[in-house]
Amino acid sequence: MKKTAKKNPHAGSNFDDFLKEQGILEEVNLLAEKEMLAYRIEQAMKVRHMSISALALKMKTSRAVVHRLLDPRNPSVTYTTLSKAAHALGKRISFELVDA
Fold first, then answer.
1. At what angle do helices 63-70 and 79-88 cross, to 10 degrees?
2. Helices H, strands E: what count in the chain?
3. Class (C level, CATH) for 16-88
4. Cβ neighbours for 33, distance < 8 A, ≥ 6 positions apart
5. Which phi and psi angles does 96 have, rounded to 5°?
6. SS in 3 state form for 29-70?
7. What phi and psi, each to the nearest 5 degrees, are found at residue 8?
8. Domain coordinates of the chain in residue numbers?
9. Residues 17-57: pLDDT tens digits?
10. Average model confidence (pLDDT) across the chain
11. Looking at residue 24, what is its pLDDT?
12. Residues 12, 54: contact at Cβ < 8 Å?
């Protein structure tokens, strides 16, 4: 008797399809974008030899706000905070709308 292997229901699909099926695609994308922003801010700080305290001072905010900004798992960052951080680092924020 020959055994047949069970077919994987996800075979041939892509990861986005899997995340959609799980109902978490938007959340995962948001967290990935936040992680990239945090990474870019950290890199800009390193280039300028700027500490968290120095960035907070330049942004006229607290170190706690900067820590939240740099926390890749914390998606609750406002445009104002991002803009202040960018300005303090000699950068600007640029957003674009892309097709989903």
1. 100
2. 5, 0
3. mainly alpha
4. none
5. -145, 150
6. HHHHHHHHHHHHHHHHHHHCCCCHHHHHHHHCCCHHHHHHHH
7. -75, 120
8. 16-88
9. 888 888 888 888 888 888 999 999 999 999 999 999 999 99
10. 87
11. 85
12. no
